[in-house]
Amino acid sequence: MANPWSLSGALRGVFGRKTIDDSTWDDLETSLIGADFGPDVTEQVTDELREKVARYNTTDPADLRRMLRETLEERLSKLDPTLKLSNRPAVVLVVGVNGVGKTTTIGKFAKFLRNFDRSVVVGAADTFRAAAVEQLGTWAERAGVSIVKPQAQGQDPASVAYQTVEKAVREGIEIVIIDTAGRLHTKGGLMDELGKIKRVVEKQTEIAEVLLVLDATTGQNGLAQAEAFIEHAGVTGLVLTKLDGSARGGFVLAVQEQTGIPIKLVGQGEGIGDLTGFTPHVFVQNLIG
Ligand code: GDP
C-alpha cells in the first residue's frame, strides 16, 4: 500500500528538478498548502527554508528536502507526545464531537494497550445513545477488554465513570478509558457533563489524560467545532483520526501549533490495529520520503 501520508507526489515537482530556482518556492508553497499545513505554517516554513538555502549557499534540491525534514521534525518535537499512564489506575477521558472516530479510537487504543500487556477497562459514559454503548461494547470485545455499561439509557454519565474507576481499583486494572458524549448542539450541557465526570473521577484518583479526538479530514472546520473542548475540558493530548488516504498530513503540524496541545496518537484506518503513537521523526520520514 502506498504510504497514506506521503507528500512525495506533490513534492516531486519541488525535489525532482535539477536545481533550486524561483519556481521551487511556488511549488513548495502550493504543495504545503495542499497538504493542509495552513497559510501560517506554510509561510513560516518556506521563509525558514529560503533563509537556510541562502545561508548554506546551496542549489541542490536534495539539500532542500533534508532541510524540510529537519524543520518539520524540529517544530513537531516542541511538544512531548508521550502518554502519561503511570498512575494506577490511569484514567483517560476521551472527548470529541460525534462522528470524528471517538468510539473506533477507543477500541483501537484499548487494543494498542493490550499489545503492551496493559490491563484495560472501558467505561461507556456516553449514556444517551444506546447505539454508542453497543458499538463500544463490540470494540471492547474485539480488543479483549472489559467494559462498564450504563444500567439504563440516560443513566448519569458520571456514575458510569465512577463505577468504571471503582472496578479498576477493585480488580487492579491498570488503565481506564472513558468514552464521553459528543453532541454538538448542547455545548453548555456537554461541558457541564464533562466537568461532573471529572469531579467524580478526581474524588477517586487523578485523571491521567484527557484526549481530544479530531478528524484530520475536516481540518480547520473540525478544529473550530472542537473549540469548546479545548477551552473547557483540560485537554492534555490530541488524537488525529482518518489520516489514511486523506493527503492531509500537514494538518498534524498546523493543529499542534495552533492549539499548543501535543498529538499523542494517530489513527490511519478503520481496523483495530490502525492506531499508533505519534513519533515526529517517523511521521516526517513518511510524509517527505
Ligand atoms: P464517533 O461518533 O466519534 O464515535 O465515531 P466512530 O468511531 O463511530 O467513527 C465514525 C466513522 O469513522 C466510522 O465509519 C469509522 O470506521 C470511521 N473511522 C474512525 N477512525 C478512522 C480512521 O482512522 N480512518 C478511517 N478511514 N476511518 C475511520
From TrEMBL:
In the record, biological process GO terms are:
SRP-dependent cotranslational protein targeting to membrane
InterPro entries per the record? AAA+_ATPase (IPR003593), P-loop_NTPase (IPR027417), Signal_recog_particl_SRP54_hlx (IPR013822), SR_rcpt_FtsY (IPR004390), SRP/SRP_N (IPR036225), SRP54_GTPase_dom (IPR000897), SRP54_N_sf (IPR042101)
Q: How does it sit in the membrane?
A: Peripheral membrane protein
Its GO CC terms?
cytoplasm; plasma membrane
Please list the residues that bind GTP. 96-103, 179-183, 241-244
Instruction: Give the top-rank taxon of the lineage listed in the UniProt record for this protein.
Output: Bacteria
The UniProt family comment states: Belongs to the GTP-binding SRP family. FtsY subfamily.
Q: What is this protein called?
A: Signal recognition particle receptor FtsY
